[in-house]
Write a structure and sequence with these properties.
The protein is of the alpha+beta class. The chain has 2 domains: 98 residues, no CATH class; 91 residues, Homing Intron 3 (I-Ppo) Encoded Endonuclease, Chain A (Alpha-Beta Complex). 35% of the residues lie in helices and 23% in strands. It contains 6 helices and 9 strands, in the order αββββαααβββαββα. It has a 4-stranded antiparallel beta sheet with strand order 1-2-3-4. The chain has a 3-stranded antiparallel beta sheet with strand order 5-6-7. Strands 8-9 form a two-stranded antiparallel sheet. The longest helix is centred in the last third of the chain and has 23 residues. It starts with a helix and ends in a 5-residue tail after the last helix. The structure holds zinc ion.
Length: 202
């Protein structure tokens, strides 16, 4: 395809910018194993021109199911990891997976917020907020019940550890119950403090 000189220059500078950004990016030195057992060899990037002449950085990924080696485009890998659907298996193996295996949340999309709760990126979930995130304890409870939770339903952590989201540690409570539980824990904490202050063993 023939471009006008200006368009060609623009395209070149854009490509060069992309290439420079890729070079600036510091990739991890060691291979990373992701879900499904696929291995991303971050330390083996290869830059080459594709059919249209654009420079693309690719990295070696080993399929977790058939162990076949394949070079993936780095920008594609980044995009897929961001949306939580990257499991690194090859096209042939991907077609044999069940819906649940294809859509499970990636550990990279599991993060702890400032209050100590775990948030999961899952934009297709009916309980997701505007950022496409769901609280993990609500997600676990809805999976146990087999339905999405209502807004007024709260999930209480029995051991008060907000990061312990195992099904046995969670119980469903209404707003009112949740408030009285919170009040009770605050009161217990206060009493414990008093006991310690007065050096009374308990
Ligand atoms: Zn495969």
């Amino acid at each position: 395809m023939a471009y006008s000189p200006i368009k060609y220059l623009l395209l070149c500078s854009f490509e060069y910018g992309m290439y420079k950004n890729m070079k600036k990016l510091k990739l991890p030195d060691s291979p990373q194993t992701i879900s499904m057992g696929s291995i991303i060899h971050w330390n083996k990037p290869i830059s080459k021109r594709d059919r249209s002449g654009t420079i693309r950085t690719t990295i070696l990924i080993i399929c977790g199911k058939c162990k076949k080696e394949r070079y993936w485009r780095l920008d594609v890998v980044f995009r897929k990891m961001k949306t939580g659907q990257f499991i690194g298996v090859c096209k042939k193996c991907f077609d044999t997976l069940t819906w649940k295996e294809k859509h499970r949340p990636h550990p990279a999309n599991r993060k702890v917020n400032s209050a100590g709760y775990i948030r999961i990126y899952s934009p297709k979930n009916p309980m997701a907020d505007m950022n496409g995130e769901v609280y993990e304890h609500r997600l676990v409870m809805s999976q146990t019940l087999g339905r999405p939770l209502k807004k007024w339903e709260h999930v209480h952590h029995k051991d008060t550890n907000r990061a312990n989201n195992s099904p046995e540690n969670l119980e469903l409570v209404s707003t009112q119950q949740n408030q009285s539980l919170k009040d009770m824990t605050t009161r217990i904490k206060y009493l414990k403090k008093l006991l310690i202050e007065h050096k009374i063993s308990f």
